[in-house]
Amino acid sequence: MAKIAASIRDVARDTGLSTATISRVVNGDTKVSEKTRQLVLDACSRLDYLPNPAARALSTRRSRVVAAIIPTIEHSVFAKFISAIERTLGLHGYSLVLAISNADEAEELAAARKLLGMGADAFILSGQTHSKALLGMLAKRQVPYVYTSVWDPLCEQPTVGYDNADLAGQALRHLYANGHRRVAVVHGPLAESDRTVARRDGARALRGLFDTLDFFETPLSVAGGKACVGHRLADGGGYSAYLCFSDVLALGAYFACADVGKQIPQDVSVMGFDNLDWAEAVVPPLTTIDLPASGMGEAVGTHIVECLETSAPMQSQQLTARIIERGSVAQLT
Amino acid sequence: MAKIAASIRDVARDTGLSTATISRVVNGDTKVSEKTRQLVLDACSRLDYLPNPAARALSTRRSRVVAAIIPTIEHSVFAKFISAIERTLGLHGYSLVLAISNADEAEELAAARKLLGMGADAFILSGQTHSKALLGMLAKRQVPYVYTSVWDPLCEQPTVGYDNADLAGQALRHLYANGHRRVAVVHGPLAESDRTVARRDGARALRGLFDTLDFFETPLSVAGGKACVGHRLADGGGYSAYLCFSDVLALGAYFACADVGKQIPQDVSVMGFDNLDWAEAVVPPLTTIDLPASGMGEAVGTHIVECLETSAPMQSQQLTARIIERGSVAQLT
DNA sequence: GTGCGCTGTGTAACCGGTTACATTTGAACA
DNA sequence: TGTTCAAATGTAACCGGTTACACAGCGCAC
């Protein structure tokens, strides 16, 4: 064990073959006789040979690394999403490098620069609003990228996700169908997420259906949701339902109600967005929209791999989400 | 823009210097005159030159990539931890590649093989129990690694984290000090985490103090905590307090109580572990132990970078955690 | 027997940096 | 003016793969 790691030339020497043949075997090239293949494979495992990724990347100009830049990892939708991407890429021999932008364009740009400097073959971005500088950088180097958590057939870039405006509309119609006419929509910071803006716009389009439809922005956290709904309850705004654009906010709404002794859904209804894994366990179980975070991760991973392997343009894909009716929305009338 | 990306030779040609000089400037070597440095820097930005990471890694045998293998990303303690590592590494020009093991040794091994095959310079592992094969692989290639979420001065490998047994003991003493004598400890799967085992053992060592001290294993989720505590409440086990080895389980306990109309802390006390960001927002606010996930991530990142830059052995570090008293534990008597 | 095509393998250039060592330049000093 | 030495820069080998191209060997058709 003098040498730390065996190189392809060590394997070549050991087998008496040339490095070209070793390379062919390792990469599954068919133009190798079965006997030779076995000989090489045997030597590889005996010498514990692992191809040097840097050398391979240098020759092939492909690193088999894909980069994802996400606003935060601390919300479990993103965690689920990332987890699914990692799994899917891994299945095809690709790895994931991660950067977190904190929903800040400058940080996103810096992250992209770093990841590009690492040799990422493709980029996964959140949402469809990104700085010119970022897009220019990727375009110049011809690195493929995809926008996620959104689906927009009009976008000239590939998108994998769902139609946020439509989803918000569906949620609102669900409340409407249950007799709610005075609804408060609670959402996270608009400046941080074009998905939030799309949802708000989608909801706002249905204004006409309601007696009252108000929008409230609050930090995207349990505490944020709690504070926001707490204020509304204290003001006596008289909303019969709170539509929260995240289950996290909805959980905050639960505790705001608990604080003032309001019962869900008897006194007030709450509807979420995401279907996080605890949504069924809360009391009462939360009615929400099931966002396919894992499915989206798989789809993104699959399309990226396909794009990189075949150098075909990346596929877009719309994912569907459905409302999960549980016990937090009262049927009025 | 005929060429997609400029290489060091393009910059050399542009400036009339040699590649060696360009390389020196780019890497901050001091043996370059100020005039030349400016000339080169100017050409670099004009040509939008980014060094090819594969070529650099090939010559230096260092990829500036560190790998982390974690059991899951879907618990926000891990998400926070990873986020802090990513930030810290980024500050020093390193990147993070992530793999998720689902707390399975075989998956962990496969992930490590993949990441090693990607050229990771160092590894971050969770806990201190790992397969021989994994450790052998890392040792053979002399890749440094660190165990996290644990602190064990007796461990021959570097550890960065906290003393899980001690923490569990502290939590239990807190309950004791508040007059609790019949306590149920609720924890996640022992088979999946040596940290859980350590906590259980730390708690069990204090058995003598209590009239009753029982241990219950349940899936590590809100639903798991809810089901487990729900059964205990239904059985009339008569525990005055539930110590949950995760805030997630504690939240489940809250809903189990809500289900049967028990008030926290009047009827039953609940204590958590982690201090997740919503712990203060729940009603009543959760008494828990503040685990320094971010601090741990920073520490790990810092030590890894230092180890890689100086090739000194990696530092161990103990992090301290403290009990956050809020409103979920009743003072009895 | 010659020529053709096919299979399997080898040769060597190349990818784009880094760096040991060689060389040039110029200032200081005798 | 010649010598010495340090600072600045250049030369070229090397890292460990991939792959275009060359070529040997063989079967087969004519």
Main sheet record of chain A: 6 strands, parallel
Question: Would you count the extended β strands of chain A for me?
Answer: 12
Overall pLDDT confidence of chain A? 93
Q: Kindly provide the radius of gyration of chain A, computed on alpha-carbon positions and rounded to a whole number of angstroms.
A: 25 Å
Identify the biggest protein-protein contact and residues per side: A-B, 60 and 61 residues
Oligomer: homodimer
Q: Which strand order spans the largest sheet of chain A, edge to edge or round the barrel?
A: 2-1-3-4-5-11
**Category from helices, strands and their pairing of chain A:** alpha/beta
Q: Could you give the distance between the termini of chain A?
A: 79 Å
Elements of chain A, N to C (H/E): HHHHEHEHEHEEHEHEHEHEEHEE
**Helix share of residues of chain A?**
40-55%
Report strand % of chain A.
15-25%
Brief summary:
The structure is a homodimer of 333-residue chains. The first copy, chain A, has helices at 8-15, 19-26, 34-47, 53-60, 76-91, 105-117, 132-140, 164-177, 194-204, 222-235, 247-260, 293-310; strands at 65-70, 95-100, 122-126, 145-148, 159-161, 182-187, 212-217, 241-244, 269-271, 288-290, 317-318, 322-324. With 333 residues, chain A is of the alpha/beta class.
